[in-house]
Amino acid sequence: MKAIEDLPDRGLLGRLDNHVAQAMLTLGHPIGYPPGTQLLRRGGEDRHALLLLRGAVKIQAGEPDDPALLAVRAAGDLVGEMAALDDRPRSATVIAGGEVVARLIPPQEFRRFLQRHPEVLLDIARDNNDELRWANRLRQAVPLPAESRIALVLDHLVRRYGHRTPDGRWSLELHLTNIELASIAGMRARTAEQAFSRLRDAGIVLTGTRRVLLVPRIDRLTEATRMDSRPTPAPV
User: Fold this and answer.
1) Exposed, middle or buried, 87 (CB in 10 Å: 0-12/13-18/19+)?
2) How does pLDDT run across 54-97, given as a tens digit for each residue?
3) 1: pLDDT confidence band, cut at 50, 70 and 90?
4) Contact 39/50 with Cβ under 8 angstroms?
5) Is 157 within 8 Å of 72 (Cβ atoms)?
6) Cα end-to-end distance, the chain, whole Å
7) What CA–CA distance (Å, rounded) separates 199 from 234?
8) What is the DSSP code string of 153-215?
9) Does the pTM of the predicted model rise above 0.90?
10) What's the burial of 24, exposed, middle or buried (CB within 10 Å: 0-12/13-18/19+)?
């Protein structure tokens, strides 16, 4: 069992009391996935849930030759729980965005755990509500300028999945392409690419190796989400 201090502090695990989180880490068995692996398939009949311990995954809908990126999940999050609970086919496809380590939890074991810890259902509902509110906010952001909408997506991802670096910046290591950012923001890839470039030219975001995103100041990124925001180059 992992030590308490080693637990992911985000997502569902971050909401749980330590003893409940530790109990959840005993469920199922550990499993690893290399980058690009399909963890779950839309329409699939399997029913297990996956508790993510390391890495990030991409949740896709649409046809296999034209997938739309709906969201991302990372360490501490639970994926596949809907099919485990309602015994219906998978509603989305989940792809490993990098090296992923998880615990594969059979549906019967997952349900028994929830019977012992019914408070976890409330935390799952809270997570789902957070995502619904976020989806509603994205829809309401359609009138915003393209750079504000991209900034809105990045601000959400950095605050949920980013980490502070020793020099005080924020680092986001989800390895998303501009096409994937465009899909989340609901805009054309070329429009998203131009908007991202304007944010980068203004020094609001920086790109590192392997598509790692760096944010020097989170307040400037949040400011860029406003309707009347127009990124200007950072002072030299």
Assistant:
1) exposed
2) 999 999 987 666 678 888 999 999 999 999 999 999 999 999 98
3) very low
4) yes
5) yes
6) 49
7) 10
8) HHHHHHHHH-EE-TTS-EEE-----HHHHHHHHTS-HHHHHHHHHHHHHTTS-EE-GGG-EEE
9) no
10) buried
